[in-house]
Write a structure and sequence with these properties.
This protein is α+β, with helices and mostly antiparallel strands. About 60% of the residues lie in helices and about 5% in strands. The chain has a 5-stranded mixed β-barrel.
């Protein structure tokens, strides 16, 4: 009885220990699930905010990596204007902007950055609003005052970019097959490329002329399409028309006058050395001939040209055989000698030899008669 009661007590202890362990395991499993849910919620929130068009952002280089970043004060104003985005956070939708950004920083969805150049450059009044080079800030906490935050996760690729990635190999193959296009397609491609190139050059020259005129007359630095020559910029920012705000000091009137005189002299120099009508006609004819050679080329013409090049070689091979056959059929008087002389010369030589032999025979017979 004592043994059985002792065994039952051990069983009860084991069962109670297993239950407690199960409760502990269930309690220990619950916080990670909640954390995972919160992580998914904040990940979704970060993706929605990043894809939103109203959040002003730029691209910069962070430790040799191109990243997209925004300013702290812009993020505050963005969430103030779009409070509906906080509904994605569910139970954490009542958090303040500072707390939301700090959670994103702890989850490595954001990283706080600082500008690399911290001193005002010569000729400027203040630091750049959107620096092109950033570095990681040691204190990873939210701040509105001159604070920059870069996204650390990879942005989801839209459908058009995926389709464009499949289109590039097709475009490369089409460019390689340009010589075998029909004549009409070649003209279409040529005029399209020439029109696009002319549009780009005209745009660059026009914005340069506007900048030079406003800089000389008003002392203002105004660049329309300011990002047209920038390498690291989005497609939307590339074709932005409005110029950036001029933050530099106004140039001196002596410098403006000097550049105006140099511009006038440059224009007069170009006009003095401009080609005349005859030279322009020669250049135009030369270029038109090159273009015609490219447009009129076709595989048939290439094959016919190769056959014409091979035809003289075949003729040279067949001519000695034909000459030998004709010579065998011709008379000895018309035969060609090995040294290249005509048949008549060979026959004359044979005739001269016969006359000499006849004279030698007559001399021998005359000597015999005398004896």
């Amino acid at each position: 009885m004592k043994k059985s009661s002792g065994a039952e007590k051990k069983r009860v202890k084991r069962q109670s220990g297993s239950l407690q362990n199960g409760i502990r395991d269930s309690n220990s499993d619950t916080p990670p699930r909640k954390q995972a849910a919160k992580k998914d919620v904040f990940q979704l929130f970060a993706e929605k905010v990043r894809d939103h068009k109203d959040l002003v952002s730029r691209w910069a280089v962070l430790q040799e990596t191109r990243v997209e970043y925004f300013r702290g004060k812009d993020f505050v104003s963005f969430l103030r204007n779009h409070p509906e985005l906080k509904e994605i956070l569910e139970s954490d939708r009542n958090l303040e902007v500072e707390d939301i950004v700090n959670v994103l920083l702890r989850k490595n969805l954001l990283v706080r950055c600082d500008r690399v150049v911290k001193t005002v450059r010569p000729g400027k009044k203040k630091l750049s609003t959107w620096p092109a080079h950033l570095e990681i800030f040691p204190d990873q906490l939210f701040s509105e005052n001159d604070a920059f935050f870069a996204w650390t996760f990879v942005k989801r690729r839209p459908l058009w970019q995926t389709l464009l990635s499949f289109f590039w190999p097709v475009l490369t193959l089409a460019i390689c097959l340009f010589p075998v296009y029909p004549h009409g397609c070649k003209l279409l491609v040529l005029y399209t490329c020439a029109g696009v190139l002319l549009l780009i050059l005209s745009l660059l020259l026009l914005r340069l002329a506007i900048f030079g005129a406003l800089w000389i007359i008003l002392g203002k630095r105004v660049w329309f399409f300011p990002n047209i020559l920038v390498e690291e910029v989005t497609l939307r920012e590339l074709f932005r028309f409005l110029p950036n705000k001029d933050e530099e000091e106004r140039p001196k009137w002596t410098a403006r006058l000097l550049f105006a005189v140099l511009a006038v002299l440059f224009i007069l120099l170009l006009r003095h050395h401009a080609p005349d009508e005859a030279a322009r006609a020669r250049y135009q004819k030369r270029v038109s001939n090159i273009i015609d050679d490219v447009l009129e080329w076709s595989p048939r013409l290439a094959l016919s040209g190769m056959m014409e090049k091979q035809q003289p070689v075949v003729d040279d091979v067949t001519e000695p055989t034909n000459g030998f056959t004709d010579g065998s059929k011709a008379s000895p008087e018309e035969a060609v000698s090995p040294d290249g002389t005509d048949g008549e010369t060979v026959s004359d030589q044979h005739g001269d030899g016969d006359d000499a032999g006849t004279r030698l025979h007559d001399d021998q017979q005359h000597d015999e008669d005398r004896t």
